[in-house]
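Changelog entry: the Golgi apyrase record was regenerated in this release. Current contents:
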Amino acid sequence: MGKHRYGVILDAGSSGSRVYIYRWLNAQAARAKDGVEDVAQLPEIKTKKKWRKKVHPGISTFGPKPERVGPDHLKELVAFALEQVPADEVPNTPIFLLATAGMRLLPDDQSAAVLENTCAYFQKETNFQLPDCGLHVQVIPGETEGLYGWIAANYLLGGFDAPEKHDHGKGHHTYGFLDMGGASAQIAFAPNSTEAGKHANDLKLLRLRKINGDALEYKVFVTTWLGFGANEARRRYVQGLLDSYPHAQELPDPCLPTGLTVNQTGSTFAECLKRTFPLLEKERHCDDAPCLLNGQHTPAIDFDVNHFVGVSEYWHTTHEMFAMAHKDKAYDFHTYQKQVTEFCSRDWRDIVSDVGAQKWGSKVDEKTVEEVCFKASWLINMLHDGIGVPRIGLEPVNEPGHGHANKTKAVLDSAKERGFLDPFQAVDKIDGTEVSWTLGKMVLYASSRMPAADDALAVGFGSNTAGKNLPADFQYAGGKYEALPTDLDDGAGEDDWHDRIFNGSYSRRGPGIAIFMIIVVFAVYLLCGRERRLSLYHKALSLIGRRSGTRRRKPPGFLNSKLFGGTSPTYERVLESGNPDDFELSDIDDEPASGSSNGLEAPRTGRSSGWATPAASRSFSPDVSRQSPKNKGYFDSSGSHGLGITPFDRGGLVVRTESKERLAPRDAGRSRTSSPTRKSPLMAPFKESVD
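Regenerated structure tokens:
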């Protein structure tokens, strides 16, 4: 096993699925790189632009035909991943498929069927590490998406590894995270100490692990506003126009450039801002004060210490057209509003002419410029009237002596030394790496692969509860609920003992199996008791031609006295209870069994590089007799909690998967089946519109 570890994540969105591949050094290599044992930082995650690929349409379109999701959707993405990950690392590389908005809209039965078929495809057609489909193949709620984004932003900015360089005051050194897609918007931030104390029950406990095994803990508030994404806000806005002009043939829309509609009075951006403000729904009743939007509770934001970065629509709407000359130009309200006002006052025909001339680049088409006035208005309202971000350029902030309008790429270049100076900054990449929630997920997973220091708790997130006991809704980084094994010997500790013996890459596989079987058979033979040993001995003699049941000489010496029970003549006896076959060891095979009498393959259990996958509930296990009672309760929970995954019934998945494998032609190259899938006791999906 090499010094690098790999991870594969499929971001299954509403419009398509994109595969991301990440790489990092294992603990031994990471410590050797820095030349010190005590490396007090998170694993360094690497990715490349060529390690990403997207296919269309979205996975949710397979709801009515889930059996086609593998060959018609996943096949191309999996083939691409296999081209990038070294072949000998594939069995040690976890694969995740995390679905977002599109899958949240599907009926529960269709969503479950798509996930089941996805899991079955991964198990049958790939050899990627997949210890638990319930955690590796799931629909994630908006809150989880926001939390992963918060991890990614702080990881890239350096807030985790160098807190002293990101001191925002009041002991605060992390950045807030804002994300806006087509259907929803998310916010995630660590409140100041006062607000954290007031709203402790509303926070999520996040735990990461450094290379040296020390834990990092953060208490983060995260929420999602369903229907507050750019596309859904536009839909609600148009519906409002239709309700206001029920009999009109043409609707006056101040959020479109002049001349795009028969609005003879002309459009003004100020009017568009006024019309979009009610979409914030700030008038809704707040049951748990304070609230920002839609009556949803949010702790008060201290913008003296909470500096936010915004991605997705926040970046595209502020930079795609209005900052082409400065890709990393800092945002300020005064400059941005002036640019948008000037653009939206132009005649539509002139704008179309500029699109044809590619004034804003080849990616900006007529649809983009048609929507930008509304999106800019919505973004401004969300940021300043909704979330409360100070209007830089108009409103004072507690950072005197710094100019704002002229800051450019230096803001990002210096982020790791001094942090952002502004309460809000739109970003797309930091140090050349895309700020993606998938990166946050992989940071969490990679940190869980670092050997834990003494008394270090599991890596993951859940409810903010006191004490060392993990909350009931705690979600582990990747399907593991016990302490992870060390890989400081560059692979020797990566697998459990039985996996190391039977793994095809193990250099002494043959002798290891032989020695292991001899030891086990001999030990079982000694434990059988004198009468059963004697019966087995006679049976062995009969198999080689000796007649059983006749008088014979006793075996001389030690073997007779110690193993076969005394010195007197012995005769074959019929056992009154038991069966000699009970003491024959069943085969342990890492690959499909061959030569079975009925031509069927024996079911196999998957492995996960040493991860002791918890026992499934009885409705899911193909062999209930082998379940561990102490593990059963963990996955028997039927509730759904916190930021967890979407539980769904995979009872039929194991049966179908095994049935298909047993009926299929033998192929030595096929991957082994992973552990039976299981229900997760964690969070149910949100019903959300398309991103």
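Residues 256 and 530 are 93 Å apart (CA to CA).
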